[in-house]
Design a protein that fits this description.
By secondary structure, this protein is mostly helical. The chain is built from 4 helices and no strands. Helix 3 runs antiparallel to helix 4. The protein is flat, with a radius of gyration of 15 Å. The two termini are 19 Å apart.
């Protein structure tokens, strides 16, 4: 089931990127500890490493990853920021996920 593995890897990648960006936001905008920059840097390094684990062309992975990132960012908005997504947020996330699936799972000649 390479599709499940790919999607799971994308989800982990998105979480690493979001956390790596959210922690500096907390420091810069919310006055939290500068020490948050250490786990932020580790998270962003994990993000780059996770992207490298995909067995397909990097450009295709980056393009498709964007769809999962959009979906995960909307979930983050709801779960962490406490802001319920609008119908349009959900529709847009769905469209992004369909785009990711087309890019990653479309039949290709070897």
């Amino acid at each position: 089931m390479p599709e499940i593995k790919t999607l799971g890897l994308f989800i982990l990648t998105a979480l690493a990127e979001i956390i790596g960006c959210y922690l500096p936001y907390l420091w810069l905008r919310e006055g939290r500890s500068m020490w948050l920059l250490i786990p932020a840097a580790i998270s962003l390094a994990a993000f780059a490493w996770l992207l490298s684990l995909h067995p397909t062309a990097a450009g295709r992975v980056y393009a498709a990853y964007g769809g999962v990132y959009i979906f995960m960012a909307i979930l983050w908005l709801w779960a962490v920021d406490g802001i319920r997504p609008t119908t349009w947020d959900i529709v847009g996330s769905g469209v992004a996920l369909v785009g990711m699936a087309i890019i990653m799972f479309a039949p290709r000649s070897a």
